[in-house]
Structure formats: structure tokens, C-alpha cells
Amino acid sequence: MSISRREFLKVSAAATAASTIGVSLLPGMQKELFADGLNWHKSVCRFCGVGCGIMIGEKNGKVVAVKGDVKNTINKGHLCVKGFYLHKVVYAKTRLLHPMIKKNGKFERVSWDEALDYVAKKFNQIRKQHGPDALAFYGSGQAETEETYIANKLFKGAIGTNNMEGNPRLCMASAVGGYLTSFGKDEPAGTYADIEKAELFLLVGSNTAEAHPILFERIMRHKAKNPDVKIIIIDPRKTPTDQVADLHLFPKPGWDLAILHAMARILIKEGYADENFIKQSVNFKDNKKNLTYEEYKQFLEQFTPEKAAQISGVEPDKIVKAARMFGKAKTAMSMWTMGLNQRTRGVWANNLVTNLHLITGKIGVPGSDSFSLTGQPNACGGVREGGGLCHLLPAHRSVKNPKHRAEVAKVWGVPVSNIQPKPGKHTVAMFEALNKGEIKGIYIMCTNPAQSLPNASKYWKGLKEQFVVVAESFFPTATTDYADVVLPAAFWSEKEGVYGCTERRSQYMEQVIKPQGEARWDAFILRDLAIKMGFKKYFEKYKTAEDIWSEYISLTKGTDMDLSGAPYSRLKKLRGITWPVPSVDHPGTYKRYTKGDPIFDALPAAKKKGRRMYFYGKPDGKAVVWARPPKGPEEPTDAEYPLALSTGRVLEHWHTMTMTGTVPELVRAVPKAYVEINPQDAKKMGIEDKEQVIVETRRGKLKIEARVIDRPEPGTIFIPWHWKQWMANILTIDAFDPGSKEPEYKVCAAKIKKA
Amino acid sequence: MAIAGVVIVTQPDKTMHVLEKLNEMENVTTYGVHNDVQIIAVFEANSSKSLEEMSMEIQENIEGIMALYPAYVTTEDELEKLA
Ligand code: SF4
User: Fold this and answer.
1) Residue A665 and residue B34: Cβ atoms within 8 Å?
2) What is the CATH number of the domain that holds B46?
3) Is the ipTM of this complex over 0.85?
């Protein structure tokens, strides 16, 4: 590289970084910046659910640079270290370049026609012999909305099975259950714009600094500018998020529900409740019946700080302090993620956080919201909104509802009788059915269940025995090991489509380069499979990604998540838009259930009279404060397994590392898994730092390096779950929340000994 | 050749210390302190390997850094070789 080009790129890099914090390094530089010989294209980060805008720099048909998109309201130009290396993943050595069929135990390269003919023939045979429910689809919160939409139509609308699931079941189903039971409609009321207006943050079961770094940065910047902003963390483990915390409550894993009830009790007792809001907008319920406000208060009486301390292990004065901080702040934003969701009482935990906002009226106003964070970039958009779970249809519809089935069948152009009224099998039940041979063929798209399922090794049997098709961008993965057919899928930057992130924002991503090798876009792979299976008349009309998106948004019209005002022509110009967006001139919605939400605005005046919020998902427009029992984890610790094991993430890696594992820089940064052990426990067991140990649960054993560190509390241990070689999920428990069916990855009982 | 433009967020009382330390480093060019706690810097390295090492080293060894946010990275010529 010539010196002048190098200097030029240096200045460009500096200016880009400067522009992300609103600084212009040299007058007029902004213009120069884009004359760097690269073509820049608007996209969205492929990793977490924050939804950062990325600009892709392309030269001669190659992706050669990325920069944060300064115009994107989410990240304003910044990226975390994962986004920073995204363009290198495109050219990973592990990219799957050709379709392959396993013949005599070995994968052989075949043509697309041969691969799809084979899958169509096998799927049709299974369907004919065993019925449609012997087939299943397992998708991903990383797939584009268009891809999930086509899969949904193929399985629910054409093949006629509701055995259609996706990995968001494993990460955010409890948040869905929480919002539905509290508000009557899924997804948050507010957006990220609340961050800069909040006086207090309550982070529960969320290592925001590592799992959602750019949101953490926004919180940090906000606190730096406003030192009175307070941050409370409720989490069993000390994490890098602690560097900004004012108060940290360390509950025993899985025992935090009592803390939230105790906080509610103090808020009411000490006069922090918004009695007017409660009267206007809140009902009370327990698991069986409606309660009066008085009955709810009586229910709370048992949760004195001392009682909550006894249950949770958190000091009573800390609980009181947290409640008072929450009560005193004029505005408060709660954020949570897997620590609450991945629990056998994940829905209840979600309800109890939302209770705090409903009791104090800290919702529906700028700076206040109960805001669930999403793990994957399109879990909200494609799977929650697109209806990619076994009980859902597109646009928050339900398979059980005859009107919903009729509406969807009409747009899909399929007989309504094709869509079954009974929900299919949820994720754990689906893989259980594969083990039992009730499901005989499965199509897995863009995800790696052989590693990511809880109690993973239990489910390898079904994957081994049944007919498994895996559409993936990378090879091998733990799941392709079991595949009969692998289909190479186009990756980020090689396809266009839409991602919908945590804050209800749908963002369009451009196709920048041609797919590597023979890879093809997942939606078209599915379309062509559908045609080969005999469903030509339902699928031949989809010629472009826009055809699919346009049909999808027509189904959202008039629903609570109206995207009909967000066609491609508009999304291509915007940095996304937050639904409901009912017309092309609508600016998108910042706050739901209140003034400015087009659905609220259109309600008859009599309904809204005297009310600042109307939760239109509930028959009387009132949200529900829940009196849930303070249940603990499914598998509490005991004498035989005395340690509580929790799993989680590190900044540098993502999920099963099929992407971050291809970037040498990230691999070198955190090359291997480890188990974090508190120094007190390590001392008792005579375990030294970096020593090999065996972690054992009732499901499996894992040999792994010990990291003696004060991050986990005594009595708890932690393993980051990303590595195939050190597969934490052979240890985790597959017990699931009876409401959301989300498994309890976050807590199980374990023991450790020296290897 | 890898080049990265980054924003380094510092603890308010450590900003000048971080700036000084960065200026002592080879292959790091700073572009001023902004909004009191943000330093713009460019890292240059012969490959993205050493770029990563530089980032890690800086974060680990310089006291007062709260976070480091890359805003721009190019490995233009490394990828050109793939063509
Ligand atoms: S915070 Fe999430 S979306 Fe943003 S750059 Fe990092 S991984 Fe990507």
C-alpha cells in the first residue's frame, strides 16, 4: 500500500471515529471521507439484537472494510469488536460453498438440482407415509424476515404442519410470554430513545457490557454526562457491566423473584406508587383469579426485605435501597435478557419486573420502560413478528384463531384447511419427537441446535437417526455432523432483506456482493424446494426479496405491528423505522399504548377518557400486575451437586462461534472455554487457577480449565457456552417454563473436582 | 496493512494519562480529546493480527480506559490478496 493511500486511510479512519461522537476533525472532511475509492453500502450488524447500522465498504466485488453507520440512530457510528470484524467472516475458510449429500457416511458434492430433488423426494415420502406432522422446520433469529416468512408458508401453509420453530424459543420466548400476560401484546412499549432520558437503569440478568455493548456504551455516555443517573444491577455474577453500577444485588441463581416482590412492597408502602395510574390502567391477578389492589398488597406482605433476603441471599438493606432508588427516580428503564428469560419461571420473572413500572407509573413516558433486550439480530423481526414459532402466524397472529388462519391463508393463496388449528411442537418437544421417531425429517436453517440445545447430547440421537437437512453458511458445525444434506446459504452482505431489532425497528440491508461459491439465498432455496415438492402454484410468484416483503407487510396492515407504511422503497432510504407505521408518511412510533401511537390515537375518545395509557391488547385496556409465587429453579443445589452452574457469553464471541470462530483475532482474544470459580470455593476444593477440572451435572461431565476469579459469588460457577470442544450445553438442564417453553439454561446444580 | 479508527472512552480523571500513554506507543496516532472523556485514535498494524493485539494490550495495560469502540476498520490489501 502506498504511503499516501495509507495516510489517506488513517485520516479517514480518524474522521469516521470522530464523526461518531459528533466531532469534525477538519473542516470539510466529511466530504473527503467518502472519496476513498470504496463503494459504501448500508447494512445492519449480523450479530446481536442491538441492531447497529454498519456501512459495508466494497471494492472490485469484495467486502474490504466496515464502519459504523453514523446516520444510524442506534449506534451513531460505533461498533463493538464483533461488528468490527464482520467483513472478515464473509471470506472465512469454513464457508460452505457447494450443496452436499452424505453418501456412505461421507459428504459428496452434488448439484443444486440433485440436492433439492433428493430433499423434496424424501420429504414427500415422509409426508405421504407418516403425515405432515412427521416433518419439521427449525429456524433462526438470525434469518431475515423474508426467509422465515417463506419457511412459514411452506411448512404451515403448504405441507400443513405447525412443527415450525426457531431458536428464539431458547432466548426470548419468556419475554414474549411476559409482555403478552402483562400488556396483552408482545414487544416493548418504548425504544432505545428512552436511554438518554432515563434517570435510573435496572439491569436484571443482563451483562449488558459484553452481550449488548453498544447499548452499554449509550448508558455509559448518558451517565458520564449526567452523574446523577443511577444504575442498579440484579445478577448473580459480577461482570464488566459492574464498572458503572451504583448498586449490585447478587441473588442466588434463580431465586430473584422474591426481591422483585419485596421491591414492589416497599414502593407501595413508602408512597412511591402512582395511585392514579394504578386506578386508570392496572388490574391485579394471581395465577388463578383477579385480585383487588388491597388483595395484591396483602399478597406482598409476606415479602418483607428479611424474607426476600432469606429466599434470595441478598442483604435486606440492599433490597430496600434498590426499591427506594427506583421509587425516587423520576424515570426508570429496566433492561433484562437471558438471566430472566432462560428460566423455568421466565415469564413470571418478566412479569415481576414490569410490575415495578406499572405500580409506579414509570411506563409510557420518555425515559421509562420495561425493556427486554434481544440476543439475535432478527429474533423480534423474523420470528416473533413473522410468526416463526409453532403457535404463531405472521403479524402476531395465532394458529388457534380461525379468523387469523383465514386471513393468512387468503394472502398465502392456500386452502385454509392446510393451516392446522393446533400448535405444533415447541423446540424441546420437537427434538424429543425426533428422538422418538415421531418426527422423521427436519429442515434446519441458519442455526446449530446440536450445540445450542440444553442437555444437548440427549438430542443427538434423533439428529443421528432421522433425515436432517441443514441450510448453513458455514461447514462443519456440530449440527452438520448429523446432516444428510447440507445446502450452502448466502451470508450477510450477499443478500438483501430486513432485520427487526429489539426496539421494534425494521431495517433494510443491501446485497453488496455475489454469494461465495454456489451459495444461494435461503428464501429462494426454500421456494425452489417448495416447487420441487409440488407447490409450484403457491411459490412461483416470488421472484425478488421485495415480492416477499411486500406480501408480508400486507399481512401486518391493521395489526398492532403495522408495517404497511414500510415498503422497500422507503426502508432503502431510512435507517429503519419503529412500528406501528400504518402509512408511508407515518414517522414510526416511539411509545406504544399512549399518545403518538396511531392505534391509541384512533381509539374512541370515550375509551381513553382520563387515561394516559390504554393497553389495547387487554379487553378493558388495563395492564396486569401479577402476584406470582416466588418459585426457584427446577434443579436447586443439594449435598450431591452443591454448586449452581450458570452459562453465558463473552464479548468476543457469539453463540456457537460458527462466525466469530472464523476470525483469528477473536479466537486469539478468548481462545478457550473456562469455568469461573469463586476464590473461596476454589480454596475449599484445593483448585488452582488454570488447573484442569471436571464439571459434572446430572446430565454430563466436562473437562475444562478453572479460572479462579471473584466474578461468580461463592456457591456459583459460570461457563461461557460458545465452544464446541468445551460444550457447556451437555451440562445444562432441558426443563422449561410451562408457559413460554423456554429452557432453564441459566441455572442447574453442579459439582467440580480436579481432573 | 490494517487500519482502525477508534473512540477510546476514559475515566474522567484519567483522560490525560491515557492520552500520554497512547502517544508513547508506536503505530498509534491520536486525534485529540473530545467531550472530555473521548480520545480519537488510529491504530496501524502490519496485519489485523497485530491490530487485535494492540487493542488488547492498550485496554489491559493503560489504566483509566473504560471502553474502546472501533468505528472504522480496513484490511483492504489483505483481502485484495484473496481476489
Ligand atoms: S452491539 Fe451487537 S449489533 Fe452492535 S456491533 Fe456489537 S454485535 Fe453488532
Assistant:
1) no
2) 3.30.70.920
3) no
